[in-house]
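Query form — protein Phosphogluconate dehydratase

QUESTION: What is the three-dimensional structure of this chain?
INPUT:
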Amino acid sequence: MTARKDIQAITERIRHRSQRTREAYLDRIGRAAGQAANRAILSCGNLAHGFAVCSPSEKVALGGDTVPNLGIITSYNDMLSAHQPFETYPALIKEAARQAGGIAQVAGGVPAMCDGVTQGQPGMELSLFSRDVIAMAAAVGLSHNMFDAAVYLGVCDKIVPGLVIAALSFGHLPAVFIPAGPMTSGIPNDQKAKIRQLYAEGKVGRAELLEAESKSYHGPGTCTFYGTANSNQMLMEIMGLHTPGASFINPGTPLRDALTREAARRALAITALGNAYTPVGRMIDERSIVNGVVGLHATGGSTNHTIHLIAMAAAAGIKLTWQDISDLSEAVPLLARVYPNGLADVNHFNAAGGMGFLIRELLDAGLLHEDVQTVWGEGLRAYTVEARLAEDGSVMRQAAPAVSGDDKVLAPFAKAFQATGGLRVLEGNLGHAVIKTSAVKPERRIVEAPALVFDSQQALNDAFKAGRLDRDFIAVVRFQGPKANGMPELHKLTTVLGILQDRGRHVALVTDGRMSGASGKVPAAIHVTPEALDGGTIGKIRDGDLIRLDAEAGLLQVLVPPSELAARAAPDVDLGANEHGFGRELFAGFRQMVGRADHGASAFAA
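ANSWER: The structure tokens for Phosphogluconate dehydratase are given below.
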């Protein structure tokens, strides 16, 4: 089945816009394929260093080019729940490779930081830039040119986008992404959010707050709400970079291990040494990128991906824009309600039918390109399944259920939760911004109120504690863009603004910073571009200026005469406090080189 005409038209627009850069990219990876791992002609010194710790039989095999060698790029660390399960993956992958007649080596590790740990802390100012560091670190691991394919072990916020950028930079190699899965369900997310609000109001203490948080984040795996980490997994599956049904299987289960072994075998099967060569740079094209955006809208996914998808596409020579994302939002209905867009978590989503049900509904409605390449070797229809454990311990698959197991969590196309997607691009005299509408009630999506201007989230929180915010207002939190301080997430504002909204106040947020996949019930116009440090109008707003945020019409305006705005001087703000400590001084070059948020906020393509 072909995609609908409107989806085709947007895809064709992207293809036409990207023609020159895409052709140049494909030419580069074509030439790289001719220089790819040819261990038989490596110098003896090169090769000896490359397989020094291998077994004698592996050395013999790697001495020629008849046995495929699989590079493992891992984001393992044992502090972070999402990445701790990867500790055992290399051994599973190596054994699966041996059984399949190949070899696997850990090519390198990449850093994996957790925005949940660094929220509101100085370290958060490294978070966005860690994506580009991850891409660079993975490139170092693959630069040895010892590998015929690579598998990428990553889950969370910046890790997967960074790994995708790296994989596409080595686009002549096949790439399979292997997830770790979500932790089992803890206390309900809405209960956790309620305790946070009570703590912010001083009605419960730190002990009660820590107990609730610990019952929510309680074991190995990703957080169970639908933030950037789980949006990543959705993207990898709908873009064909996972094996079918792999995204949301819990860690530490026999099925999870079976899927990992299967992914390793599949990566070896699609190298240039076999008959199913699938270089990832050719596999991922404009249709794959559009499929990813469609999935993001249909699930109400993370706002972070309005940045990451642009950077990921650019790594393959594809020019995706916010306008493309906005136009696709108008065409794609919301089919999933997972916290913060609803009360369910990703385990409930998976139990209701998960990715297999979602992909089938979108395919049948003509909203996805079915005729794409995937690591599975078939079109996207092969992903309309659920993975199960066979009696012999292997992976078996069955068709996704015909009916949702819970249509309050995962709806069929005919009963969509709303006619348009969960994300919206706003524009007006404040520039461009992004808003996550799927978690915001329709009656809250239009706010017109006076501005209260802050230069940090701490200043806003201090004002709340001092009792100065019990009114209708739009909080303007500026100098939070990538050039100013690395564009940290401002998620700690969600609780404070949520309390005021619950009191009946009309509130919203406008910022050149980020709010993440956890953007909640308060309307938040984020990623405002140009940012304040780049001369954006957001830097000229003053307390009392009337602002209109209209998520229905896609408008973001400050209601001040143009002549008055033009006459205002940009504020003189000292950002020196952001330049040192917690490694921030090491990222000064990134702040200087980084591009705009609507261009992917990348240091590679500013």
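ADDITIONAL NOTE: The first helix runs from residue 5 to 17.
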